[in-house]
Amino acid sequence: MPTKKNAKVPKGTRDFDPQEMAIRERAFSIVTSVFKRHGAVAIDTPVFELKDILVDQYGEDSKLIYDIADQGGEILSLRYDLTVPFARYLASHRITNMKRYHISRVYRRDQPSIERGRFREFYQCDLDIAGEYPSMVPDSEILKVLIELLQELSSVSEFHRRRLGNYVVKINNRKILDGVFKVCGVEEKDLRPISSSIDKLDKMDWEEVKREMVNAKGLDEGVADAIGALVRKKGYPKDLLAELRTNSKLVESCGTGFEEMERLFQYLESMNILESFSFDLSLARGLDYYTGVIFEAVLMSDETSVGSIAAGGRYDHLVGKFSRREVPCVGCSLGIERVLTIMREAELEMVAEKGGKIRVPEIDVYVGSPSSGERLLNERMRICTSLWDASIRCELNYSLNPKMNRQLEYVGKQQIPLLVVIGEDELEKAAGERAVLRGQAKNREPYSRNLAEFGFRWLLARPWAGYCALGNGYMYNYLCSSRETFTYSNVS
Questions:
Q1: Residue-level pLDDT at 370
Q2: Which residue numbers delimit the Aminoacyl-transfer RNA synthetases class-II family profile domain (predicted)?
Q3: Per-residue pLDDT reduced to its tens digit, 419-457
Q4: Is there a binding annotation on residue 205?
Q5: Is 415 marked within a binding site?
């Protein structure tokens, strides 16, 4: 007898059950809605790229790229992010202006951590704006999109707000960071290695970072101390910018960095979102392709250990690596898997406190019968067909000999709000019952195959997107108040 194969998933990957998929679909729907609201269009690219496209783009993180085994043809790697493939896409199709969004999987040979939402296969949600525009105008819209994403994902319920609603967006500029390094005495060739060390300040204390720069990267200790005195500065954007401008050497060294940030802060203030930002000189973003504004959204809630959930910045020279023409770009990437980890925790907390469960399948009507026979199965099919044709989500019992108690148990377990029961006698007399179950209460109405008379006029008049469930912050209680009218109440 052949040996059974191990049915486990690879390390750093997952299967998703229906309840998890309901949460994911809800989140992706919110993200897509925000992206489309800003006029972005969707694209997709291959899950793997030529290895030459990806190498030397990610600094020290290049070691995390998944290489595909050489099959005797092109040397390929799985995509590490969605930004480099977008730059390649622009160059390949000779596009110079585009506002695009891309929601898809990426791959990294990272050390997985389920608790922190870190996996080897995961989704990213990116929005990027490519093209020549007045300074900081597209950058400000990208940051507005980021704030909208965080606000809407946290507004699903109070449980989500407690976990996702307390955040800060750190912001910096590569030109300013490089200017700080140069003023302190860092040579041009060492800018990126030192920047990658500073990028670890959110995970390591200053003394550890300093030892790495001095011992591992050969930086003079005095230079390291000078860097430390500056990069640990952070605060309200306009206040810190004014403080930094009092340093004449820094002003000279940072080039247009200060002017860009002043203009950006003005635009963010016009959009009423400046209060969500902290000007933080320790923010470095380790990826080599960033050239200007950089940012990172971090959760501040004590209820989660996820940390950074979104990041991005300006990259003006990446497209030029694949084309003779430079195309300036700026974009943001939402770490949706980390957000989903938190949303899952919020859903479970909500279910535990309010009772019920995350509702799947997302059915509004269940059509059953207490009697046996193919005739009633045909009638259930007719009723469901009428409902499906009217875009009403419904399900029927397949059995020729359905048990009423099992149907009631299924309707209750799946939290299906409306149960339609068709009986043999009622069918003969053209009278049946539609039962709306809540606790022990049951209301009956005469049966008719006509949808309006049957009492579904309210469903036809109230189409909705998403899922009606306790799991997304809403629980709909359908109460039969008359032959033609139903009301529902939001009890989130």
A1: 78
A2: 1-361
A3: 877 776 656 654 444 444 433 334 444 444 443 334 343
A4: no
A5: no
